[in-house]
Amino acid sequence: MANDDSRPLTLRDVSEASGVSEMTVSRVLRNRGDVSDATREKVLEAARRLGYVPNKIAGALASQRVNLVAVIIPSLSNMVFPEVLTGINQVLEGTDLQAVVGVTDYTPEKEERVLYEMLSWRPSGVIIAGLEHTDSSRAMMQAAGIPVVEIMDVDGTPVDCMVGISHRRAGREMAKAILKAGYKRIGFMGTKMPLDHRARKRFEGFTEALAKGGVEVADQEFYSGGSALVKGREMTHAMLERTPDLDFLYYSNDMIGAGGLLYLLEKGVDIPGEIGLAGFNGVDLLDGLPKQLATMDACRLDVGKTAAQIIATRVADGDAAEYESHVELTPTIAFGDTLKRK
Amino acid sequence: MANDDSRPLTLRDVSEASGVSEMTVSRVLRNRGDVSDATREKVLEAARRLGYVPNKIAGALASQRVNLVAVIIPSLSNMVFPEVLTGINQVLEGTDLQAVVGVTDYTPEKEERVLYEMLSWRPSGVIIAGLEHTDSSRAMMQAAGIPVVEIMDVDGTPVDCMVGISHRRAGREMAKAILKAGYKRIGFMGTKMPLDHRARKRFEGFTEALAKGGVEVADQEFYSGGSALVKGREMTHAMLERTPDLDFLYYSNDMIGAGGLLYLLEKGVDIPGEIGLAGFNGVDLLDGLPKQLATMDACRLDVGKTAAQIIATRVADGDAAEYESHVELTPTIAFGDTLKRK
DNA sequence: CTGAAAGCGCTAACAA
DNA sequence: TTGTTAGCGCTTTCAG
Where is the HTH lacI-type domain (chains A, B) (predicted)? Predict the structure, then answer.
């Protein structure tokens, strides 16, 4: 099965084994051009028998084409991003494109390194989370001459295309719903991540809309590290000790919201009567909680699918491609059981 | 900044811009061989100014070296796998190796396709979940002539190396702890996945050890799809309706265990007095629950680190490398608040 | 329908 | 310390 020495097999080996020229072997293996059934069979048989695996490195260099799409995201442990990936993969599976993932840990420097590394493989496109990048990163994407889709945010100016929701607007909408329900003393909890621009924008939209209603955030707290569920419990406890008259808690993500919810339910607090709660993201997990946490869907699957669709279209149709290059998806509020419906 | 036409920049462009030969430019950019500080500066300046990004495709073809490690896992949404990845990345960051992830969705056919695809990029090593693969997949890994580490399971025979825990033993240990605590009427809940060999092995070890203690699983149920937390609630409810005298529930993963726990707490069931509970994996999430679910850690971070270490060592030291090629990690039971400590 | 020749952009090996 | 030469394994192009 394997060849005598340990040198990987080449097209030439298949050519010799089948008595067909390298060129024709190549054609058979790629289903390109017309090849007679007889030779095709000979080639396929030989390739199978030898256990030939083509060398894409050489193929890519020769054809100047690489069927990879670089996907650059901040983290894999956030639930949110694997879901975007799922959307991307769903669409790419229908093409011959292949996603390759890079993780930035929410730092612009690592993002730059990862981007450089990935671009050096000459991918067919880039899908990257967020609109904030170093100048150098932006320059690289511009110079790469390939489609670039910035995802998950539309509050800013993209290098090329963008697909996502407006986090500012999401924050505003939630604030409006809260005010409308009659809550007045509002606490906020989130991650201590100056580099999580989307969370920041949500918070800005939130405070802005509250202000319009004459309300200010009465208390706020930020955490970093550790189990989000635990942090949600702890912060909720601490905040209510400090500011007992709060009647609403807005969490910057569902996990800490869930922690807060579990904590308050144990304490026997009346929700949403005495205190209302809301999170952000619409994670699956919430469905299994004793009460459904109010939240707002970030359209993660859709974002992934739309972004991949743009890349696929551009790769297939070239510059003549027709598509929306700026797509704003609109999330809807899920009131659940923790936010009065007014 | 960008070049005139839209052709990507080459070494030659940098060479011309700096007045240094291509070869020396290459040396500077790779920090290889001795280059005078003066020329080094000239080259780096030119490369930066032009915005040159090397072409790894060409580099890999010429050097016959690719600094990629193929990592093949069943899923990204299982929490477990991103954690293994974290371990892998932690170790690889200290080398010039780079992980590339492929997802199989728990099917051997897709695993085979993904493996083929990845091997065609001629990676320096493979890390792949599980010991069960198609003959063809096994043959490919054998023929690739690169280090292969099969992870997360040691109950079987690897192609090359393996790192993980024995799921059979994990099942047995949990059964023993349960029997020792005095529980007798035991229910089991898990995923309906004939292809999740590790869950299967755990179950086998579990029933085997129970049998040794003269106990049989009194009821069992399997689910597929949907939110695990919700499924945990639903199955727990259904099972206790059907078999009300159960005094212990063993869940094949922590998420459904958490769902069951939340459900039973709402019902006011005394845990672990009236009913004991245990899950599997030791996920972070559990820390935030009202009671700590008993579980068993699968050593995910360690598995990733050890596997990556093996690859890194083999790549660096070649066949002369010294390392354990079969590593069995031993998980410990966390009794939490849901399993009597005897 | 099949084959021969000429690179793709880079690096190993050697020469200067 | 620097430069020259000859490919890496495949595909493009063009000729049969």
Answer: 9-63
